[in-house]
Amino acid sequence: MLTKAVPYLFSQKSSSHDIFETLYARMSGYHRRVFHLLGALSMHTYICDAIRTPIGRFGGALASVRTDDLAAIPIRALVERNPGVDWSAVDDVIYGCANQAGEDNRNVARMALLLAGLPETVPGSTVNRLCGSGLDAIGIAARAISSGECQIMIAGGVESMSRAPFVMGKAQAAFARDMSMQDTTIGWRFINPLMKKLYGVDAMPETAENVADEFGISREDQDRFALRSQEKTAIAQAEDLFADEIVPVHVPQRKGATLVVQRDEHPRATSLEALTQLKAVVRTGGTVTAGNASGVNDGACALLMASLDACEVHGLKPRAKVLGTATAGVAPRIMGMGPVPATLKVLKLTGLTLDDIDVIELNEAFASQGLAVLRQLGLADDDIRVNRYGGAIALGHPLGMSGARLVTTALNQLERTGGRYALCTMCVGVGQGIAMVIERV
């Protein structure tokens, strides 16, 4: 069978990886094991399902849901949506979470999988690359499966910024009075003086102002970018384009019926006139406002990922494959520029160019950084491939969840439009960027 297949496959317009994977699908179990043992084949990792909660406003409908309970919701949804899977076979659950100071402490991935009802034998690990945590979790799972170490995994992320606690450090000496209270919602805490001296410890909005200054991004352009984000999301919601990726969250109320949250609640109607009236949040004469920045939000997202073998064993239908993930570092004071080197790196890794990409999901931490990234990559401010359904300015930005949300939304866009490749990229606090390319199958 294989000898007949080889000439046909090489006559097609396929990558060498695709050719070997097709041959692999025709092999017996024995020959597959030999391939793995020899290290002759790096397999693709497939995304078989992806689901998320709605994104809640700060102090909004999801604020009463514990972070670990919130994290369990999309995992439980994966179980319900994929009844043919033997969940005891899951090799690992990887979740991203940026805070981990409150109810998300002590390995929220492990807590979530147990609360979701997965077997006790399934392990879990929580990773923290700040804003890029959810995307990093998917990348880690993809590498584990592609290496042959794992066969089936769950990856995603969670953040409840509404429930982020205040924390108090201990005094440095007995009877000292140098204890400090820190808000863990976002940004720096317990700052290292040397870090401050060497690199500065600009708050997130300050880094956005730095980007605006250094790359010449005007207030008007930022407000127009923010307005486009809100308008695109409004259209997407009106056309119910997020329905396939959202699992409703049932929130018990003290009085009355249970509240069912099934729609992102951060988007808000606005106008250019309204946006221009907002005051700058960093300094007088600045350009960064609450209207052209992402939100402080709550949400969770989970993806079911598997090898070709595991897809066959568990009756799963691959929807996309992860082609590559890349990370990069930049100066912390302009952390918003991280997607530029990360994108260039992942494109080189996958042998693609931006012209090959059909869907681009760029996390809109701030309009200034979104515009600066697009311009540095040679893309138009209004490139139709970018955030077709709006971005974090409209939808919100639950830090540890956002990267997984980008991939989930990109996957649904590829399927809806018939596109082939999607790029998901985001900036990361303390000066990093992360990017991933997926391919629809």
UniProtKB/TrEMBL annotation:
Catalytic activity as recorded in UniProt: succinyl-CoA + acetyl-CoA = 3-oxoadipyl-CoA + CoA
Residues at the active site: C131 (acyl-thioester intermediate), H397 (proton acceptor), C427 (proton acceptor)
Gene3D superfamilies linked: 3.40.47.10
Major enzyme class: transferase
GO terms, molecular function: 3-oxoadipyl-CoA thiolase activity
Key words, A-Z: Acyltransferase, Aromatic hydrocarbons catabolism, Transferase
SUPFAM superfamilies, A to Z: Thiolase-like
E.C. code: 2.3.1.174
InterPro entries noted in UniProt: PcaF, Thiolase, Thiolase-like, Thiolase_acyl_enz_int_AS, Thiolase_AS, Thiolase_C, Thiolase_CS, Thiolase_N
Residue ranges of every copy of the Thiolase C-terminal domain listed in the record: 316-440
Pfam families assigned to the protein according to its UniProt record, in alphabetical order: Thiolase_C (PF02803), Thiolase_N (PF00108)
GO biological process: 3,4-dihydroxybenzoate catabolic process
Domain Thiolase N-terminal residues, every copy: 46-307
Pathway listed: Aromatic compound metabolism; beta-ketoadipate pathway; acetyl-CoA and succinyl-CoA from 3-oxoadipate: step 2/2
Family: Belongs to the thiolase-like superfamily. Thiolase family.
Role according to the record: Catalyzes thiolytic cleavage of beta-ketoadipyl-CoA to succinyl-CoA and acetyl-CoA.
Name recorded for this polypeptide: Beta-ketoadipyl-CoA thiolase
Organism (species): Pseudomonas fluorescens
Taxonomic classification: Bacteria, Pseudomonadati, Pseudomonadota, Gammaproteobacteria, Pseudomonadales
